[in-house]
Amino acid sequence: MKPPVKPKIARTVDAMRREVAKWRAEGLRVAIVPTMGALHEGHLTLVTEGLQRADRVIVSIFVNPRQFAATEDLSRYPRDEEADVAAVGQAGAHLVFAPPPEVMYGPHFATTVTLKGPARAGLEDKFRPSHFDGVATVVAKLFIQSGADYAMFGEKDYQQLMVVTAMARDLDLPIVVIGIPTVRNEDGLALSSRNRYLTRHERHQASAIHKNLEQAAEKIRRGVNPQTATRAAARSLTTLGFAVDYVAARNAETLALPKEPDEPLRLLAAARLGATRLIDNIGV
Questions:
Q1: Using CB atoms within 10 A as the burial measure, which of 8, 48, 176, 237 is most buried?
Q2: Core vs surface per residue 84-119: b (16+ CB within 10 A) or e
Q3: Residues of the chain where predicted confidence (pLDDT) is lower than 50
Q4: pTM for the whole structure
């Protein structure tokens, strides 16, 4: 295991590229972990996994305004850069890229990555229509700015993982996108920066999303129709007080509606509990 290091902080693209150039001169490989801060153990696992593949790890911390709709929580999204830098340093990251918005989006910025395929699957995109265009734009910039060999993403945001994987492939970006299994609390709740919004009672209830997905997956393995199983899970969550956006069974690789009995499946869910919107997914 590599010892913890105190990461440098780069505020500009040039500053990050200077550090990467030094590493490249030594023949070192680089991984990047894109984040919006408010880091938890799931993010730190991505750093650890990056260190298994690369010699140096960059963690970006940037709350990307382009992936928030006007009605969403941009202004109150949790921010604690000092704590985040300390945490990724303990995990072994070498550089934190924490640019201000004007560095990422200058006054004449006029380019957006527009997506189809898994970004138009009728899941998150149905409820957040501009979200993935904003995600893909900032992630494409981070890939190009860093020149990293690997990009580490958690499977908790599964549609996002599929989107950035397709984007990197379609644009021939020389980077390998790697999905890392979701990190969970003991009761099954997927770790998320937004979990801190939950009240104590809501936190107790929140693990029901994962439990219902597991129950639906088991039904499907026993031969129950996927749509029947996911509808039952949605009804159960509604009964428990969730406002369900979707519980869906999709092809695990394309996020298209399943058509064949033996194709790989992913179950995905999104629901609100009080003021907090939670997402989760599992394989079947």
A1: 237
A2: bbebbbebbbbbbbbbeeebbbeeeeeeebebeebb
A3: none
A4: 0.94
